[in-house]
Design goal:
alpha+beta, elongated
Length: 280
């Protein structure tokens, strides 16, 4: 009877019980390792899906705000651009009005020499024979690492036309006998400045883009020959031969140059004093 009671009370062998106790004490009890790994992976996937879902929800909430800000920025740019265009039109109208008033004042004061003075000052439109000179960047123009297109030779060694090149071209044309000069429709005067702003060339603070078309009124054949034989003409030829600057010059029978936007003199004044001859 005691044997039956012992079997009923201890259905498992004591060795099994001891082994289970040792595993539990060592922390190896509970679920199998494979099952625990699968459960951990599933929990990670659920957490990642939760993060993605929350991020997507936040993005959907923020999207209308970003789109609205973008539309407001575009509208602001459009308004400012329209305002700048109107101001530019106003400036052009004022320049035209000033030029007209200057021409009228020149006629009143200049008398018979008014037209000649206006031509020399660049305040009136002119036409006549001359030369057409086109200067353009090389086909594969670029800039060096420092953003400067000048090497030790002083030439445009990256194939890009610079303000110094155009200064020499214009000065060479004046020296060769040009009576009136314009670049891309911009009339040059004694007060004109050719400068650079980055890679852009400015003529009287107006940016120009290549190709640069230079019109010069004068004795066409003679002007062309003298310019090409001058130091500045040879300089331009060197740019073409060595750095790919594209140039062309042609004699024209009739060129039309516009008047300068405005000719303003702030310092110089005419000398109205008459010198009287003394008697001995």
């Amino acid at each position: 009877m005691s044997l039956l009671n012992n079997v009923m009370d201890h259905s498992l062998d004591d060795g099994y019980a001891e082994a289970a106790a040792r595993k539990k004490a060592a922390g190896d009890g509970g679920l199998p390792k494979t099952l625990r790994a699968k459960l951990g992976l599933a929990a990670g996937l659920v957490l990642a899906a939760l993060v993605v879902t929350v991020g997507a929800a936040q993005a959907r909430v923020a999207a209308p705000v970003v789109a609205k800000e973008r539309e407001e920025l575009i509208d602001r740019i459009d308004r400012e651009t329209a305002t700048a265009d109107k101001l530019e039109e106003t400036v052009d109208d004022l320049r035209a009005d000033v030029s007209a008033r200057q021409r009228e004042a020149l006629k009143t004061v200049g008398g018979d020499q008014a037209e000649l003075v206006g031509i020399l000052a660049g305040s009136v439109e002119v036409h006549g024979p001359g030369v057409k000179l086109v200067v353009n960047d090389a086909k594969e123009a670029g800039t060096d690492g420092d953003g400067d297109a000048r090497g030790s030779s002083g030439f445009s060694d990256t194939g890009r036309v610079r303000d110094r090149d155009m200064q020499r071209v214009v000065n060479g044309l004046w020296e060769s006998g040009a009576e009136a000069v314009s670049i891309n429709g911009q009339r040059l005067t004694a007060l004109s400045a050719i400068r650079a702003a980055g890679d852009a060339i400015l003529v009287d603070n107006k940016p120009l883009v290549p190709p640069y078309t230079v019109l010069a009124v004068g004795d066409g054949e003679r002007l062309s020959t003298r310019f090409q034989d001058s130091a500045d003409g040879l300089y331009l030829h060197a740019l073409q031969e060595n750095f790919g600057i594209r140039t062309s010059i042609s004699v024209q029978g009739d060129l039309r140059l516009p008047a300068a936007p405005s000719v303003i003199v702030r310092t110089a004044q005419p000398n109205t004093e008459k010198t009287e001859k003394g008697t001995s």
